[in-house]
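Example record

The entry below shows one chain as it appears in the dataset: sequence first, then structure tokens.
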Amino acid sequence: MIGMVLLSRHSDRMHRLRWHVAGCALPGAAALALESVAGQNRGLVVFALTVATITVFSPMPTCYRSPMAPLVPKAAPGAIALINCIGLTGGFVSPTLVGWVKTATGNLNNGLCVITGPLIVGSLIVAKGIRIDANCLV
């Protein structure tokens, strides 16, 4: 919760929405990969999961604001609905994918490594694909 507030405030101040979202996804992917190779080191596992949780969930408020910034106010509900649909799809696909990889390989850690891929791809899409003018973020 604290991470969400701090990231949202900094993002609003700097007018760098896409870089705050993309910049959080990469450490989140690295933390999930670290957790999967940490083994029995409980301290390292807790640290990696904490970093992953903060960096993956903190940009969510910024994600809601990004597509709505250049739109007219009447289009905002449609943008929120689209974000929710994509999020709900990810909420189904990710656990299914982790379970499938665990069943196929016999190791849950491999499933966490697979989840890092969409995080990295998503951060690259946000960093390179979304262009928002700073003037429309008033």
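Notes for this example: The chain has a mean pLDDT of 80. The radius of gyration is 16 Å.
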